[in-house]
Write a structure and sequence with these properties.
- The protein has 550 residues and is of the alpha/beta class.
- The protein has a domain at 441-547: ANL, C-terminal domain (GMP Synthetase, Chain A, domain 3, 2-Layer Sandwich).
- It contains 18 helices and 26 strands.
- It has a nine-stranded mixed β-sheet, sandwiched between helices. It has an eight-stranded mixed β-sheet with strand order 7-6-5-3-4-8-9-19, with helices on both faces. Strands 17-18-20-21 form a four-stranded antiparallel β-sheet.
- The longest helix has 17 residues, at 42-58.
- The structure holds adenosine-5'-triphosphate.
- The site of adenosine-5'-triphosphate has 23 residues, from β14, β20 and β21.
């Protein structure tokens, strides 16, 4: 339009780096990060991040280079979320549960120039470096993050985190993104269904999703956030950057347990936490000796796996305010939110939990989430019955998969991001996940949502954790097989569990077999169903005549 010009006065590439710049001014003397007896203010955090950026530049890190980190939720991990992009580089946070073989594979893939490692994970990285050396891959410069009482234990370590910071100047000119689509981070997926894929986040997407996470977590200024979500997972659902925007306090913890959660909440007057349903399950099943009364309102954002209504119900009983979000690494973590409506407040608690276990609607930074037939690309009717694939469109969808243009094109085919998740849409527009396409069970031509069967299993008083997979069957194709971990001190037979399910589900959906054991999980709280599927396969088919009794 005549009179309109785009210039630096009115058009600046969006980047979450600006949140820290502002926090140092507005909240300069407020506490930014707490870790045991260590605490920093926002002014100090900004200075430390500038030193970090300056040190990286001194090591030859340039725009577009990758800097990797393997560390739990400690202050250095938080600082890297700003220091690395300030140097114009791309942060690659690796999963702390990976072994040396996986770390070496990902380091080779991402070609990190510099790597930061926590002292407890040094052995894993040493193993990875050995494997890389065998392949004659250039090793990254290794920075060791130790704690005051620990000494440097390896010749592979080039320097210490604190000395790197202290010898660098805080006078550093930030390398702001030239284009807001420039990458800020590289996040490998959880590897639940296949080998992890390298998801590229942009400054723009990170900026938008950070602001959205503030909104959907109901975060006012100066929140106190307990880091129970791994920062390596989707950059802590983008809350690493979001906390700076609100001048919040980051309570860093190395390990997560119910006792640590309750103690930290009461010590630091925590206002917000987040976690996969496994974390919620840990809270609701905590022994009385570990539980403490909540000092005030505590908002909990859950996601990463389907939260069973029973667990949501018990969390509310304990006084937590739970928000339920769903998304993927490819959508910067949260993509939808089960936006709560006041008219639901007066419903019985169990109905509220059932409503809240739905995945909801797209958040404000996305354009749309739809449930489509993946072949015709037609939207499914909002009948809560017709299953389709969840598809996203909008500004908080990844740039693509690093070094895998074919996978990127496949994921975006048809102009939508295809999630690989199956869901239905309810009449009120809210979506509800039924399964991952790789997990759904097809028995005698009927689709069985493993999420629905697991919800019933979770409502059994003796069940602590449950997962259902398809077991190959000569007659039915597949039958549901449940893997169950019982609560400590509880006792229950397979027949009792099967009867419990049959009383609450159509017979074909009820498990035909129950195996009692610990469930294998990823560090992002997802049950590794491919391992269970292998076990179910090894069990062989049920007898044909018993199958026909269904
Ligand atoms: N609220 C939720 N309810 C149900 N499932 C969820 C929820 N949030 C996330 N998920 C599941 O987690 C998946 C996203 O996980 P993530 O991006 O961490 O990697 P992954 O898909 O597990 O790993 P990979 O793609 O390597 O197998 C979603 O596709 C969905 O299946």
């Amino acid at each position: 339009m005549e009179g309109s010009i785009r210039c630096s006065a009115n058009y600046v590439p969006l980047s979450p780096i600006g949140f820290l710049e502002r926090a140092a001014v507005v909240y300069g003397d407020r506490t930014s990060v707490v870790y045991g007896s260590v605490a920093f203010t926002w002014r100090e955090t900004r200075e430390r991040c500038l030193r970090l950026a300056s040190a990286l530049a001194g090591l030859g890190v340039s725009r577009g280079d990758v800097v990797a980190v393997l560390a739990p939720n400690i202050p250095a991990m938080y600082e890297l979320h700003f220091g690395v992009p300030m140097a114009g580089a791309i942060l690659c946070t690796l999963n702390t549960r990976h072994d040396s073989a996986m770390v070496s594979l990902l380091l080779k893939h991402c070609e990190a120039k510099v790597m930061f490692v926590d002292y407890q994970l040094l052995e894993v990285v040493q193993g990875a470096f050995k494997l890389l050396s065998v392949e004659k891959v250039k090793l990254p410069f290794l920075v060791h993050i130790s704690e005051p009482t620990r000494s440097v234990p390896s010749p592979l370590v080039n320097t210490e985190y604190e000395s790197l910071l202290m010898t660098a100047s805080p006078q550093f000119e930030i390398r702001w993104p030239i284009d807001e689509f420039d990458p800020i981070s590289l996040n490998y997926t959880s590897g639940t269904t296949s080998r992890p894929k390298g998801v590229i986040y942009s400054h723009r997407g990170a900026y938008l999703n950070s602001l959205v996470t503030i909104l959907i977590n109901d975060m006012h200024i100066l929140p106190v956030f307990l880091w129970t979500v791994p920062m390596f997972h989707c950059n802590g659902w983008c809350l690493t950057w979001g906390l700076a925007a609100q001048g919040g306090t980051n309570i860093c913890i190395r390990n997560v347990s119910a006792k640590i959660i309750f103690d930290s909440i009461s010590l630091h007057k925590v206002t917000h936490i987040g976690g996969a349903p496994t974390v919620l399950n840990m809270i609701v099943n905590a022994p009385d000796t570990d539980q403490k009364p909540l000092p005030g309102r505590v908002n909990v954002m859950t996601g990463a796996a389907p939260p069973p209504p029973k667990v949501l119900f018990k969390m509310e009983e304990l006084g937590f305010h739970v928000m339920h979000s769903y998304g993927l690494t490819e959508t910067y973590g949260p993509g939808t939110i089960c936006t709560w409506k006041p008219e639901w407040d007066s419903l019985p608690a169990e109905d509220r939990a059932r409503i809240k276990s739905r995945q909801g609607v797209h958040h404000l930074a996305l354009e749309d989430v739809d449930i489509k037939d993946p072949v015709t690309m037609k939207s499914v009717p909002p009948d809560a019955k017709t299953i389709g694939e969840v598809m996203f469109r909008g500004n908080t969808v990844m740039n693509g998969y690093y070094k895998d243009i074919n996978a990127t094109k496949e994921a975006f085919a048809g102009g939508w991001f295809r999630s690989g998740d199956l869901a239905v849409r309810h009449a009120d527009g809210y979506i509800q996940l039924k399964d991952r396409s790789k997990d759904i069970i097809i028995s005698g031509g009927e689709n069985i949502s493993t999420i629905e069967v697991e919800s019933v299993l979770f409502s059994h008083p003796a069940v602590l954790e449950a997962a259902v997979v398809g077991r190959p069957d000569e007659h039915w194709g597949e039958t549901p097989c449940a893997f169950v971990k019982l609560k400590e001190g509880s006792c229950c037979s397979a027949e009792e569990i099967i009867k419990f399910c049959r009383d609450r589900l159509p017979h074909y959906m009820a498990p035909r077999a129950v195996v009692f054991e610990d469930l294998p999980k990823t560090s992002t709280g997802k049950i590794q169903k491919f391992i269970l599927r292998e076990k179910a396969k090894a069990m062989g088919s049920l007898l044909r005549n018993s199958g026909s009794k269904l």
